[in-house]
Amino acid sequence: MAIQIKEIVVISGMVGIGCGLLKVPMLALILGVPMDIAVGSSALMVGLTAGGGFAGHVLNGHWDWRTSLILAAAVIIGAQIGSRIMVRLNKKKLKKGFGWSLLAVAASMIFKAFR
After folding, report:
1. Does the predicted TM-score (pTM) go above 0.90?
2. In the chain, what is the straight-line distance between the N-terminal and C-terminal CA atoms, in Å?
3. Which class for 7: exposed (0-12), middle (13-18), buried (19 or more C-beta within 10 A)?
4. Do 36 and 86 meet the contact criterion of CB atoms below 8 Å apart?
5. pLDDT digits (tens, 9 = 90+) for 21-39
6. 11 vs 6: CA distance, rounded Å
């Protein structure tokens, strides 16, 4: 019995990975968006979602500004390093690497489910 897209979305949401599992492959493989643009678009979507969560925590008084500063610095440094690396990467190798990493995550989840 084949698993349908809506079942994948429900299952991925239940284990906390949202639709990132589907966004990048859908953008790259189905819609023909270049892999680097698909990954960047997915990262932007994650950032917008995180911004909404952050706003909720600030409004409820659950904000630690020291941790935020540390994380902000790490994000800025990581974004600079990542963007410079991304320009030099071979797009076909990036697509293959992403596929293999998805398979590794899937295998890990299956292994943990049956352990």
Report:
1. no
2. 24
3. exposed
4. yes
5. 678 888 888 888 888 888 8
6. 9
